[in-house]
Specification:
Blueprint (H helix, E strand, L loop, with lengths): L1 H16 L8 H26 L2 H28 L1 H4 L1 E3 L11 E3 L2 H6 L12 H8 L8 H25 L10 H29 L4
Antiparallel strand pairs: 1-2
Helix pairs in contact: 3-6, 3-8, 7-8
């Protein structure tokens, strides 16, 4: 009996001597978690600060500008390939000034060159080409400037010819033949505009 009591006393003494690892208090665990979150947020904020939002916006605008140049070029190709169709309007059940159901009209030319709608890919093309100018290789600066100048000049002249021809019938001495003359002059300007855009696309390395 005495031996049993001594054994139990010894056992209790050894158990009491064991050191139990301290359990982190709720406040300590919360503090560690808070530090981790703050560190993560800080790193994210630093990355945002360094990268910023402007490069993403600039890249987006650059891609839009490139796409618009290619779209505008393709539209001019389509216009020239379908010139007669696109510059002719037929009024079913209604005769024109000369008693015909169909007549030539130049107004579509202004549409394709970006003079009629803000949604047209060539709308204010001079600004688009100016923004893309930073992508031009230094040894192609002169070629790019010449192409842009030819494009803007001929686009303006084509639009002017188209507008004048739209009044060809109403002007003194006017008629269908005068309208045809102005439309064909506009076509020559559109051809040069298309070729100038092709040069721009080649210099910028864009895919059509």
């Amino acid at each position: 009996m005495i031996r049993t009591a001594a054994f139990l006393l010894l056992l209790w003494t050894n158990v009491s001597a064991w050191v139990t690892p301290p359990t982190p208090s709720p406040s300590s665990a919360t503090e560690v978690s808070r530090r981790e979150i703050l560190a993560s947020v800080g790193a994210s904020a630093l990355a945002t600060s360094l990268l910023g939002s402007k490069p993403a916006l600039a890249l987006s605008q650059e891609e839009i500008d490139k796409a618009n140049i290619v779209k505008g070029y393709k539209r001019l190709v389509y216009l020239l390939d379908n010139w007669e169709k696109e510059t002719t309007v037929c009024k079913i059940g209604q005769t024109t000034t000369f008693g015909d159901e169909c007549e030539r009209t130049p107004l579509k030319v202004m549409d394709y060159l970006g003079y009629k709608s803000t949604n047209d890919p060539l709308f204010k093309v001079e600004k688009t080409l100016k923004r893309l100018g930073s992508l031009v290789p230094t040894d192609r600066d002169v070629d790019y400037l010449d192409a842009v100048e030819n494009l803007l000049q001929n686009a303006e002249e084509a639009s002017g010819m188209a507008y004048v021809s739209s009044w060809g019938e109403a002007n003194p001495g006017g008629g269908k033949d005068r309208v045809e003359v102005f439309i064909e002059r506009a076509k020559k300007n559109v051809i040069v505009s298309k070729e100038s855009l092709a040069t721009v696309i080649e210099i910028l390395g864009l895919k059509v």
